[in-house]
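ok so i was messing around last nite and threw this chain in just to see what happens. nothing serious, just curious
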Amino acid sequence: MTALQVYSPFADAGFDDFVRGFFKPLREHRDAAPIKLDVVEKSDAFVVRAEVPGVAKEDIHVTIEGDQVSIAAEIKRETQAKEGERVLRSERYAGSVYRSFVLPVEIDEAASNAKYEGGVLELTLAKKPSCGGRRLTIN
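result:
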C-alpha cells in the first residue's frame, strides 16, 4: 500500500535556513577581522604589508621558521567607564589574531626587518642565498 504524503512548499531545507538566518546579523561583531596581507617579491627580498589596526607594536609578534612566516597580535580593549554612564553596546573586539603563510624560499632572519606605522606592519624579509648544487667527482 502506498503512503500518502502531503506537499509542503516550505519544507525545503534551504527555505528554512533562509528564514532562520534572516534575523541573524550579517557579521558577528565580536569576531576578529583577519589580518589582511599584501606580499610583493623583489630580487633579494619579500615585502609584506599586513593590516593590524588598533594594536600597539609591543603586542605584535612575528616568527620566521625557514620559509614559514607567522604574525600574531594581541588586541586589548581599553574600557573607561565614567560616572553616570552605562554602556549599552560595545562592538570592539578584544583578543588575539593570527596569520601564517609559506613563501617559496627560506628567509634570512638576521637580514630581515620590520616596522609598524599607521596600523600597517611592513616586513622586509630577506631571501636566504641559495646554495648552488655541488658537483661530485666520481672516483
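not much to say yet. The domain at 32-77+94-129 is CATH 2.60.40.790 (Immunoglobulin-like).
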